[in-house]
Structures are given as structure tokens and as C-alpha cells.
Design brief:
globular, 145 residues, 3 helices, two-stranded antiparallel ribbon, 8-stranded mixed beta sheet, 10 strands, mainly beta
């Protein structure tokens, strides 16, 4: 795997919601290339993890591997193709001597890596929370128009 510098250059806003209730947009970083997705938060410290990281998958049906060897605990939010949270789980930090964990993602639009405690703080619930992404470029274009 080729080490990619971070933060990654693509950014966006993510809005979480339930039914008609929407929360304020959260600025996020995006991993869009295969190298960025595979690397994810590896090589980062918890202090350099300032905002959610969205992992985009080129092929939503085919398996996309992500290497989990982070130096801190994170939560993973799996977003379905319909934009609804399919699953959330905690990924503990890598411990010296343990094996590297590679997660294969398929049948989802993206995975969002967030700091531990994020899902509780934002009340993210499986099958009832929806996620909407707005690109930073689109937001800036609307503000300048």
C-alpha cells in the first residue's frame, strides 16, 4: 500500500437526520481514491482526526478492502445505497502484536469513520438515521451565486 498524505484533499458536509428532523451540517473529509480508502486513518494520530472521514467505494456492489490498524478507537457507520444507516460498530485501536484487520465493504454507498462516542452524541441509530452528503464545491458555488 502506498502511503497517502493527509488530510485528504476532498471535503464535504454531512447532514444526519431522522424523519423530518435534520441536524446541522458536519464538515467531513472524503477518501475517494482506492489508496485513500485503503489507508483510511492509518498513519494518523487521534489528535489529527478532527472530523469524520467518509470512505467512498467506486463499486458499491463489489468488495472494497479497508485496512484497520488505527492508533485510536473509532466508530464505523455503514450507509446503504438508499442513504440510511445500515450498521454501526466500534473498531478498537490496533494493539502491538495483534493481526491487521481488513474489512471488506460491499452493498453500501459509503462508510463513515468517526471518533468514539460520536454515534451516541448524535443519536445515530441503525435503520432510522439517514445521511445526506453535500460537496464543499456545491456549497461554495451556491454562496457565491
Amino acid at each position: 500500500m502506498k502511503k497517502v498524505s493527509f488530510p485528504f484533499s476532498n471535503q464535504c458536509y454531512v447532514t444526519l437526520g431522522k424523519g423530518l428532523k435534520k441536524f446541522a451540517p458536519i464538515q467531513a473529509e472524503e477518501a475517494v481514491t482506492n489508496d485513500e480508502v485503503y489507508q483510511a486513518l492509518n498513519y494518523r494520530s487521534q489528535a489529527s482526526f478532527h472530523r469524520p472521514l467518509i470512505l467512498h467505494f467506486e463499486d458499491q456492489i463489489r468488495n472494497t478492502p479497508v485496512w484497520f490498524g488505527f492508533s485510536f478507537d473509532v466508530e464505523v457507520i455503514i450507509v446503504g445505497i438508499d442513504g440510511v444507516v445500515k450498521r454501526t460498530y466500534e473498531m478498537p485501536k490496533y494493539k502491538e502484536g495483534s493481526g491487521i484487520f481488513v474489512q471488506l465493504f460491499s452493498d453500501c454507498s459509503c462508510a463513515i469513520l468517526v471518533p468514539k462516542g460520536f454515534c451516541k452524541k448524535w443519536d445515530v441509530l441503525e435503520q432510522s438515521t439517514f445521511v445526506r452528503r453535500t460537496s464543499l464545491q456545491t456549497t461554495l458555488a451556491k454562496k457565491t451565486a
